[in-house]
Amino acid sequence: MSRIGKKPVPVPAGVTATLDGQTVKVKGAKGELFFVVPDDVSVKLDNGEVKVDPRDETKRARALWGMSRSQVENLIIGVSQGFEKKLEITGVGYKAAVAGKVLKLSLGYSHDIDFEIPAGLTITTPKPTEIVVAGIDKQKVGQAAAEIREFRGPEPYKGKGVKYANEFIFRKEGKKK
Which residues of the chain have pLDDT under 50? Predict the structure, then answer.
């Protein structure tokens, strides 16, 4: 039994959820999203709640049950509140700036890195060493943040690189003479 899947997803005020076959469409103040629920899982909309149940007791249906419920919950949170990931840049001369639809990163390479900002996302740099990726789609926000972090991941000796704001980097001691 899925402990996550058992809980119904409440639809808050200001958000409208509609069901069209296996497609859940959610509309809110920040935008509109949809998710096509797999056929192994049934979806019901009643009393301002979205209820997800497996159609049968197969392993696949049980696996998709909790995942489908989480996806629907992410849609509702996305259109009502939105998602954001914060990244921090550490290193001498490392910085970021937004110019139009491009994030310019100086990360110690011989050239600057230009990252095209994906549609539906907003990237801001409150400080030159801080990047905030925000949007309504949790998957897109996480993917964009991961791609930015990948340009120069944090290293364990000096801690230089791009890391998530809440990430802890295990530091190592350097060589000894």
Answer: none
